[in-house]
Amino acid sequence: MIPRERIASARIPGGGEMILYRRGGDHLILVDREELMSSRMSGSEEALATMTAERLGPKKGQRWLIGGYGMGFTLRAALRSLPKDAEVVVAELVPEIVDWARGPMADMTAGSLDDKRTHIVIDDVANGIAQGGWDAILLDVDNGPDGLVRAENDRLYNEAGLSLLKRALRPGGVAAIWSAAKDPAFTRRLVSAGFRVDEVGVRARSNGKGPHHTIWFAKAR
């Protein structure tokens, strides 16, 4: 078995330590010994973008907010799906993540960070949501609708956070939330917040294999 090599680490504001490892040609990011993401598991993160684009259709001048960057799978899929007049803002809380994307994981970026449609902001995605005016808001900042990376993220998924999420969307807009597992209580919260909810199971890997992940697509009723 190929041993993993520790490449870099970063502190999460209000949270624990994030560590980047390399194992052969793959990369992994762990938070406090729990695997947060892996370059071998890109399918559901890509689906987060492609399925959102399918639901929005060929609308002009789309404004997307993605939180956060991770390994860039969602951003790259979004850019492949969106027209040239779109704008994609990526809110990443940990600046080192962007440094790693341009450094040890540069081969994976495929030019996405330099695309004219891409705007990277080092900020809490909650601040981006509060600005409003989004056609799509894609959340993949935890392993699900709870504050794994940092406790403060819980505010994104509670009643007040979902109310803000709803107000932040343009008419016909879509909120998409990624999770490593199902969460019936969160589904109920989305419905109670006034969303029409489409809960979709997606395989973790792009080849249709791997664990089952969950994505909620929510539109205002």
Could you explain the architecture of this structure?
- There is one protein chain.
- The chain has helices spanning 43-56, 73-81, 95-102, 125-131, 159-168, 184-192; strands at residues 5-11, 17-23, 26-31, 34-38, 63-67, 87-92, 118-122, 134-139, 169-179, 195-203, 212-220.
- It has one domain (41-220): 3-Layer(aba) Sandwich (Rossmann fold).
- Helix 1 (43-56) runs parallel beside helix 2.
- The chain is built from six helices and eleven strands.
- By secondary structure, it is of the alpha/beta class.
- The mean pLDDT is 93.
- The strands form two sheets. It has a seven-stranded mixed β-sheet, with helices on both faces.
- The chain starts with a strand and ends with a strand.
- Helices cover 26% and strands 34% of the residues.
- The longest helix has 14 residues, at 43-56.
- Strand 2 (17-23) and strand 3 form a beta hairpin.
